[in-house]
Amino acid sequence: MEKIKTEVLIIGGGLAGLSAAIEARRAGREVLLLCKSRAGRSGSTIMAANNISALADPAQDCVELFAADILRGGRGLGDPSLARRLAADSPSGIRFLEDCGVKFLRREDRHLIQANPGHGRPRTLTADGGDHPAQISGLGLSLPLLAVAKQLGVVIWDNACVVDLCLDAGRVRGALALAENGRILLIQAHSAVLASGGGGRLFAKTNNTRDLTADGLALAYQAGAALCDLEFVQFHPIMGIAPARIVFPTTLFSDGAVLRNQCGERLLLRLCPEGEAGVTRDTMARAIDQEVREGRGSGGGVFLDLRGVAPDVAQTRYRALWTLLSRHGCDLSRTPVIVGPSVHFLMGGVCIGETAATTLPGLYAAGEVTGGLHGANRLAGNALMEAVVFGRIAGRSAASVQPAGFDLTQAFPPPQCGAAHPDTEFFIAQTGRVLWRHGGLVRCASGLRQGLKEIADLDAQFKALPQGVVSARWFCARNLLLVGRLFLESALARRESRGAHYRSDYPRQDDSRWLGSLQVRLGTDGRPVLEFVPQPLGNS
User: Fold this and answer.
1) Cα dist. 452→212, 292, 437, 489 in Å?
2) How far apart are CA 304 and CA 317, in angstroms?
3) What is the DSSP letter of 100?
4) Which of 25, 128, 280, 347 could disulfide-link 103, Cβ–Cβ 3.0 to 4.6 Å?
5) Does an H or E element contain 539, and which?
């Protein structure tokens, strides 16, 4: 086992992790960033449509309006302090990105600002993806920050999978990690930032990359941190099914795109007079799912009609997207593309406060691994700004921890489990199938209980695998099985429908009983303990 010392440990190499690393390094700390894959070139950031929410026009927008939209979109469950912090810090977040070399689309030397469903004001900016293909246009965000982090002297280790957080006297003091060639690392640090992203691979149908296996949630939970809002999983309504599998940006709806069923009807007009522009993602995803289930869909989805998007807009704002579709032989003047829901984002995660501190001393968190900001539904464009704002805060907070003497070597021997077994991928795939089948867009008690039974059976089989050489994918399977169970437990406990959590047996929102968050912690008996925390009066 190799022993490494640093001052601030960053776990994750996406937008949140890089933002944290830059701020911690600028504060004068030694910073080590570990990325499970390749820093700046993996995870959700690179697949983003580059739409980011910010207070861009103070003449028409303000912190109070932005925060109110976040809370309204979250169906009253978001943390007001986190919502206000995101809104207030969003202008400096844009300046930070530009200072790092990120370019934004502009018109007449001003930022191009667009409307997005759920936002009461136009506040969506778009980072320029440059010549990167549409599927990975988020490199226009991540690569400039990666370059700045390296220039500042942040030490970056790629292909390093963190398998456990290390505690000393109840405080996070580092981590155990598995590096390339089976090397085991004991990283000793004064503080740590968890920025490992979400866990879309919990579900069989997802637009997340292969490496997003809920690792950060599992690490925090096993170390004793509180998690919240796990039942709220965002299904992106317009994931491409044909001719290309790509996440279509919802800003298209403000530029003339509409959704149609097999009969040519605009299905969302039944729900809202404004159609697509007035419907949030949770409602849109369920409406599409209903069209498919009732036989009015096509190819497993519905049609995204892009004919209303003006040619000049298509060739400026959506140039990479139009190029991709043309390469697939799609004539948009005659052929609508087919889209449908897929798991996109976890609203729930590790509980944090305004300083990005978790409930574990010494551990901070930022980005999709956290919960509490979005409540029951996330508004489009807020994820990237969340990563920047709270990544920067987490980096500064971690850097403020004063160094102290300690030695983890004796307390944390190398991990002894983790088999390089061919069946590991079977458990990863089966977990996704179970959660999609029993915890997808429409849930009920019987299905959730069946899902828990199937996860328990899979977990027992998984633990019976023969011991062997330590494998990173073994830990991925372990984390998915653990967090999958916590998700199903939370979804079963919330007996109402709210935002992205829809229960067919409890189809209505119930503010009298469920206006608040479900938190889950590791109990002393090794079982999850769920606690309902009511929303403070006046915050709904």
Assistant:
1) 21, 27, 12, 8
2) 17
3) T
4) 128
5) none
Report whether 369 contacts 389 (CB < 8 A).
no
Distance CA 227, CA 217 (A): 8
- DSSP codes of every residue in 247-310: BPPGGGGGGT-EEE-TTS--GGGGT-TTGGGG--HHHHHHHHHHHHHTT--BTTBEEEE-TTS-
**pLDDT, position 540:** 47
Residues 115, 379: Cα–Cα separation, whole Å = 12
Q: How far apart are the first and last CA of the chain?
A: 50
- Contact in structure between 11 and 166 (CB atoms under 8 Å): no
SS3 478: helix
Judge whether 378 and 347 are in contact, CB under 8 Å: yes
Which tens digit of pLDDT belongs to each residue from 2-14? Answer: 899 999 999 999 9
| Residues contacting 281, CB < 8 A, separation 6+ | 117, 118, 234, 235, 236, 237, 250, 344, 377, 378, 380, 500
What Å distances lie between residue 296 and 269, 340, 441, CA to CA?
15, 13, 18
Contact call for residues 243 and 535 (beta carbons, < 8 A): no
What is the rounded CA–CA span in Å between residue 49 and residue 206?
A: 16
Q: Where are the beta strands (DSSP E) in 17-104?
A: 31-34, 51-53
| Integer Cα distance of 263 and 266 in angstroms | 9
C-alpha dihedral sign at 286, 427, 44, 297: negative
Beta-sheet strand order (sheet of 155-157): 155-157, 31-34, 8-11, 191-194, 363-365
Indicate the length of the chain as a whole number.
540
**pLDDT tens by residue, 94-106:** 999 999 999 999 9
Bridging pattern class, strands 191-194 and 8-11: parallel
pLDDT at 264: 93
The encoded tokens of residue 182 equal 């089976």
Q: What is the pLDDT of residue 413?
A: 56
The residue among 409 and 291 whose pLDDT is bigger is: 291
The rounded Cα 522 to chain-centroid distance in angstroms is 22
Are 76 and 499 contacting, i.e. CB atoms less than 8 angstroms apart?
Answer: no
The Cβ-side half-sphere exposure at 533, using a 13 Å CA radius, reads: 18
Query: Please, which residues have CB within 8 angstroms of residue 443's CB and are 6 or more apart in sequence?
Result: 491, 501, 502, 503, 504
From CA 501, how far away is CA 287, in angstroms rounded?
Answer: 14
- Per the CB < 8 A criterion, the answer to whether 380 and 360 are in contact is no
The pTM of the full predicted model, rounded to 2 decimals, is: 0.92
The closest of 325, 363, 35, 347 to 209, measured between CA atoms, is 35
Q: Is the pLDDT of residue 398 over 70?
A: yes
Distance CA(168)–CA(174), nearest Å, equals 9
